[in-house]
Design brief:
This protein has about 550 residues and is mostly helical. The chain has 21 helices and two strands. About 5% of the residues have low confidence.
Length: about 550
């Protein structure tokens, strides 16, 4: 009974320590975690490398994965770049196994762990900000060490009652035919999977396996089989977290599960070759170290195999789970709310997509076309754009905490200005404007042309925010082909010329409105126009001027030029 209590208590202390340490390291990293991941994932290879490093530093593959989901949803990373980070996180999370192998199971660390817990807890309680996070990380690390010592004591008692011969024989064992050995491997894989599913931590499950081997309760080949199952088992938490989540979160969860299954299949195929090599190496290298190395190599091989196939892998995941959410609100990922910077970026890209939609719709209406605006494969309306802005406003109200730096606060303020102006633009555009009256006279036609130019410029600026730039020196402003994807039109990068064009169009529209108003109302006095027709034409030009103004200000604030 005391053995079971020691084992369970050791696992519990280890899990608690990992949780406290991870939260502390995340607080200590602050927004640097988001900045590092968004800049490091330029290519899938770089993403895998830095995903492993960040996970190793934060001791949490879930922190890396959740941050990646927010970055992909906000449009800061492509799905393919996000996959690179997730692949790397699988390698980085094996670092804790090395901590267990090199330190945790070899010596009793109670004398060092308890002072760490005291100092860390005191720092956590008496300070704030990153210093408080450092205290939590230190206390968590102390709990991990204390948990490993307790686990080691429990495993010592378990080894007196459990021997490797009591567990199923595997392919590397000296007894049993190949099919019985294969069955033994599969049984141990299932046991490892269940261990991780119950603990909700592959790191804790691997720590139990390493401690069990060190105590003599588990053989080297059996430990390897358990590790395969424990790596598969960690996908269960991703599967549970994906229930009810966004499409991006579900896609990354599917990719994570497929990675684990493919890596496990490779490991099982290589099992008859690898185990004899490890058995021979165990005569010169400590077995616990070999198990930790196997754990890391297992995941590295999966990354090496899948990275060259990442294009195919991306298409496979996207085919398994196609995107069904609105293209306007796709960036509003709830997981992004935990990071103010990512949340603001998600809203910026939502506003940009709305601007493209509304400006494209107004330009089409001025040209006499009633064709719907298409974003990718989906058609969207001005009413849907208005609904998307309301969702963005609610989303921004739920952000956790204010931004940390002055630059980030200014970016949030600019985003709020852009949101307000885009909402006014959508309200005017959705107000039943009689676009047919812009062809009733030369002044009306001129106002329509100026408004159309303004809409093209605003849409070009918005595309530069909504999607990454294609090539330097691309056309600044030009009408997009009708019926094509509105997001495939030209982008204004840098936006200065387009902003100047917007200001020019808006200024000239304001002057044209005054001249048009005087001339049109005067036409009522000489009997050329009825009062209703004249006021309708004046109201139409006034609406064109208002839309041009709101599009200009929204686009300018969107790129920080407000």
């Amino acid at each position: 009974m005391s053995t079971a209590i020691s084992v369970l208590g050791g696992v519990g202390l280890f899990l608690l320590g990992m949780t406290v340490m991870t939260e502390g390291l995340k607080t200590l990293a602050g927004s640097a975690l988001r900045a590092m991941l968004s800049k490091a994932a330029a290519t899938p290879l770089h993403g895998s490398f830095w995903g492993a490093i960040v996970t190793l530093l934060t001791q949490s593959s879930s922190a890396t994965t959740m941050t990646t989901i927010g970055l992909v949803s906000a449009g800061l990373l492509t799905f393919q770049q996000g996959l690179g980070l997730v692949f790397g996180a699988n390698v980085g999370t094996t670092g804790t196994g090395w901590l267990v192998a090199l330190i945790g199971v070899r010596v009793s660390l109670t004398a060092a762990a308890l002072p760490m817990i005291f100092v860390g807890a005191l720092t956590k309680l008496l300070t704030r900000g990153r210093l408080s996070g450092a205290g939590a990380a230190l206390a968590g690390f102390g709990l991990v060490l204390f948990g490993l010592t307790t686990l080691q004591q429990g495993m010592g008692g378990l080894a007196e009652r459990l021997h490797p011969a009591d567990l199923p024989a595997v392919l590397g064992g000296p007894e049993g035919r190949w099919w019985s050995g294969l069955l033994g491997v599969l049984v141990l894989v299932v046991i490892g999977l269940v261990m991780t599913a119950l603990m909700q931590s592959s790191t804790a499950a691997v720590a139990v396996t390493l401690s069990g081997y060190y105590a003599g309760a588990v053989g080297l080949d059996q430990g390897c089989a358990l590790i395969i199952g424990q790596n598969i088992g960690t996908a269960t938490s991703s599967a549970l977290a994906a229930i009810g989540a966004s499409t991006t979160a579900k896609r990354l969860a599917i990719a994570y599960i497929l990675f684990k299954l493919i890596a496990a299949l490779i490991a099982l195929m290589l099992f008859p070759v690898v185990i004899p090599l490890l058995e021979r190496a165990s005569s010169t290298v400590d077995g616990v170290t070999l198990l930790a190395a196997y754990h890391t190599a297992y995941n590295v091989v999966g990354v090496v195999v899948l990275l060259p196939l990442i294009d195919w892998f991306t298409r496979l995941v996207e085919r398994i789970l196609p995107e069904r959410s609105s293209p306007l609100t796709r960036c509003l990922e709830p997981l992004a709310l935990a990071n103010p910077i990512v949340a603001v970026e998600a809203v910026r890209r939502t506003i940009a997509r709305v601007l493209v939609t509304v400006c494209g719709s107004v330009e089409a209406a001025l040209a006499g076309s009633a064709k719907p605006i298409r974003l990718g494969k989906d058609t969207v309306s001005v009413q849907e754009a208005a609904d998307a802005l309301r969702q963005a406003q609610i989303f921004l109200s739920d952000v956790t905490g204010p931004p940390d730096t002055d630059d980030e606060q200014r970016r949030l303020t600019s985003t709020l200005h852009a949101l307000d102006r885009a909402s006014r633009l959508t309200e005017v555009a959705n107000g039943g404007i009689n676009f047919g009256s812009v062809r009733d006279g030369p002044e009306d036609s001129r106002a329509g042309e100026l408004c159309a130019e303004a809409m093209r410029s605003a849409a070009a600026i918005a595309r530069g925010v909504a999607v990454p730039p294609r090539v330097a020196g691309s056309p600044q402003v030009a009408p997009a082909s009708r019926g094509a994807d509105a997001m495939a039109g030209p982008r204004a990068i840098p936006p200065d010329e387009a902003i100047a064009e917007l200001e020019r169009c808006t200024t000239q529209l304001g002057e044209a409105l005054r001249i048009h108003r005087s001339a049109t109302l005067g036409a009522v006095a000489n009997g050329t126009l009825t009062a209703d027709a004249a006021l309708l034409r004046v109201d139409t030009v006034r609406s064109l001027e208002a839309m041009s103004l709101h599009a200009w200000r929204s686009a300018a604030h969107l790129v920080g030029r407000g």
